[in-house]
Amino acid sequence: MLKIAFIAHDRKKDEMVNFVTAYEHVFVGHSLYSTGTTGQRIMEVTKLDIHRYMSGPLGGDQQIGSMVAQDELDLIIFLRDPLMAQPHEPDITALLRLCDVYGIPVATNIATAEILVKAIDRGDFAWRELVHKYKPGVDE
């Protein structure tokens, strides 16, 4: 069972809802998390149970970042709007930085999200084992 978080900027929420709806069969059985409005919108059209945090600008991005820092997430699908300035941009940057520091896969667009979710569907999403295998100093 994977722990997956969904985040979407306002102009990307419809795209996120459509994406999660299309892959609902893949997400069933995994632990799902989201920022407030995104999670609510997904739950309105699917049968998925999603633990919702606060809205991104009110601290939800930081709450999900805390999960990353505590090694409690396996994947984040974060559909960002690159054409709109966000008032909480420092929080977004901090979250993406944490994903890089801790090696958490994060999809920031629908194409990357599709590749990662198809890997999950195939049972081909063993990134933690790969990181462990190629990490310097491990099993030497």
UniProtKB/TrEMBL annotation:
Single GO molecular function: methylglyoxal synthase activity
GO cellular component, one term: cytosol
Encoding gene (name): mgsA
Keywords: Lyase
EC number: 4.2.3.3
Active site: 61 (proton donor/acceptor)
Enzymatic reactions: dihydroxyacetone phosphate = methylglyoxal + phosphate
Example GO BP: methylglyoxal biosynthetic process
Keyword Zinc-finger annotated: no
Pfam family for this entry, one: MGS
Chain sites annotated for binding substrate: 9, 13, 35-38, 55-56, 88
HAMAP family: Methylglyoxal_synth (MF_00549)
Family the UniProt entry places it in: Belongs to the methylglyoxal synthase family.
Cited function: Catalyzes the formation of methylglyoxal from dihydroxyacetone phosphate.
InterPro entries per record: Methylgl_synth (IPR004363), Methylglyoxal_synth_AS (IPR018148), MGS-like_dom (IPR011607), MGS-like_dom_sf (IPR036914)
Name this protein carries in UniProt: Methylglyoxal synthase
Enzyme class: lyase
